[in-house]
Write a structure and sequence with these properties.
The protein is α/β, with parallel strands linked by helices and 332 residues long. Helix content is 43%, strand content 18%. The chain folds into two domains: 138 residues, 3-Layer(aba) Sandwich (Rossmann fold); 149 residues, 3-Layer(aba) Sandwich (Rossmann fold), CATH 3.40.50.2300.
């Protein structure tokens, strides 16, 4: 009886302590994961992409302000700022860095070899040394990239729009902070043009101050079509580019729908929102212990074609590019 009484007394005394300990454990705050987002442009100019990324995080069980925090650092298309911004995110001890664009991914990788990096959108990660292969990225970088075949598809679509053209100008932005990016993009475009039997004219610009001279050079060389390559500089100044293309009666192919909305003729590419939502999947996997080196890099499966019918009608009315064809998916 004495033994039983002692055991019972101990049980009664320990029970409240156990319950209190459980209550304290339940009240302890959940660890907040910290995501650093490095932008070549600005999240304010890509709200649809930011919303898609947050939606992807919510689907994975993350709520900003509760169990996850996002710190944005934006270069606002001043690419020289990217290295310092990347270093700043590293100093904040973030758990993962998400990048917009190849240049941002390069800056992040130069800033850290240990913090995982997720490319929300990029081009030529193999050629620029960001990853070892799509299936086995190696190192600390993974995420999403655009296929090199996309350039050829854009040129084929441009030929369908302007079937009688034989001379095409390629607009390329060159900056000292984008080592390897512009030359690679140029190489892909020149290969695509040669495969179509077109003559090529390369127009290199460093910023908006060079745009006018580039289009005048295209006119002197009797260019009949224009392909605007991927670049933060060109994307940021899409309205002036679309206006100049209209002024010089040049049917132009662009990378993104936003160019068409700004008055450009045609665009073909994936939806940014889809890629940013998918980037949240990579963040979730990494936060749960997966290594970037083991997460295959993906390419988008869906692409969108847009054409500005108003611009197409204006080009035809002004006599620009005989035989201009219209596409079915349009932006008024």
């Amino acid at each position: 009886m004495i033994g039983f009484a002692v055991v019972l007394a101990l049980s009664l005394e320990l029970a409240p302590l156990g319950a209190e300990a459980q209550d304290n454990k339940a009240q302890q705050p959940t660890k907040v994961a910290r995501i650093g987002f490095l932008w070549t442009s600005s999240p304010q100019l890509a709200t649809h992409a930011v919303d898609a990324f947050r939606e992807g995080l919510r689907e994975a069980g993350y709520i900003e302000g509760q169990n996850i925090a996002i710190e944005h650092r934006a270069a606002d298309d001043v690419l020289q700022r990217l290295p310092d911004l990347a270093t700043e995110l590293v100093s904040r001890s973030v758990d993962v860095i998400v990048t917009q664009g190849t240049t941002a991914a390069q800056a992040a990788k130069r800033a850290t070899r240990t913090i995982p990096i997720v490319m929300a959108i990029s081009g030529s990660p193999l050629e620029t040394g960001l990853i070892a292969s799509l299936a086995k990225p190696g190192g600390n970088v993974t995420g999403l990239t655009l296929p090199p075949e996309l350039t050829g598809k854009r040129m084929e679509l441009l030929r369908e729009i302007v079937p009688k053209a034989t001379r095409v100008a390629i607009l390329v932005a060159t900056t000292s902070t984008e080592p390897g990016v512009a030359p690679l993009g140029l190489k892909e475009n020149e290969m695509a043009v040669r495969s179509l039997g077109w003559h090529t004219q390369v127009l290199e610009v460093r910023g908006p101050a060079d745009f006018g001279k580039a289009f005048e050079a295209a006119t002197r060389a009797r260019a009949e079509a224009l392909n605007v390559t991927a670049s933060p500089v060109l994307r940021f100044h899409r309205k002036p580019l679309a206006d100049l293309a209209a002024k010089h009666r040049l049917p132009a192919m662009y990378q993104m729908k936003e160019f068409v909305e700004a008055g450009g003729l045609i665009s073909y590419g994936p939806r940014d929102a889809d890629m940013f939502r998918r980037a949240a999947y990579y963040v979730d996997r990494i936060l749960k212990g997966a290594k970037p080196a083991d997460l295959p890099v993906e390419q988008p499966a869906k692409y969108e074609l847009f054409i500005n019918r108003k611009t197409a009608k204006t080009l035809t009315a002004r006599g620009g590019s005989d035989g201009l064809h219209h596409a079915s998916t349009a932006v008024e």
